[in-house]
Amino acid sequence: MQHELFSAETALLTARAVVRRFREGDGPALYELADNNRSYLSDYFSQVLHATPDKETAERFVREKMAAWLLQHEYCFGIWENRSAQLIGMIQLTGIDWSIPRAELSFFLDQSFKGKGMMTEALQAVIRFAFVQLFIEKLSLRTSMENYDLHRLARKCGFRREGDLRSEMRKASGEYVDVMLFGLTKTESGL
To answer: Which of 13, 12, 9, 3 is nearest to 133 (CA)?
Structure first.
């Protein structure tokens, strides 16, 4: 356990959003977000859909994410839009290997907020959090080959393409898809 990490911030502010650790009572908001984006999430975030079939189960999922944060196994944030205080996305640091230290990012945003720069703001805040507060040395993210928006976002945030993984992901339809792997080191980020 990394005791210095207990002082890490639990809320990150961007120009238009609050990116914060999930809290008790956030389950219903997460359920609504997942339910409103069900068809979009089914291919690449099916684990979120399985964990949020109803409000009560979504609340248990939120509490599991809170426990994982305290145990330093993963860091899961909700993205809350400033004006409406609506939950519009989720971003998490998972697969943490403290011996390196490295972590993998995964995230999604409500379809109605795409293309407005909200995820860029949230991702940049979490990148800073990972490098400065958690002392992570390398971040990675995976995306399907056809997700051009995410390729652009990754590059905009400083990530570099590190390779391709064939048949690495499986869509809800059963179709296997190839994945692009992106990486960013703390040194490259300038933080």
So the answer is: 9
- The domain total for the chain is 1
Task: Assess contact for 35 and 41: CB atoms under 8 A.
Answer: no
pLDDT at 3: 56
> Where on the phi/psi map is residue 167: left (φ > 0), alpha (ψ -120 to 50), or beta?
left
Residue located via tokens 């189960």: 57
pLDDT in tens, 60-73: 999 999 999 999 99
Region of 97 on the Ramachandran plot (φ > 0 left; ψ -120 to 50 alpha; else beta)? beta
**Residue 180: inside a domain, yes or no?**
no
- How far is the C-alpha of 96 from the C-alpha of 74, rounded, in Å? 7
Print the domain residue range for 14: 7-141
Query: Domain holding 136: CATH number?
Result: 3.40.630.30
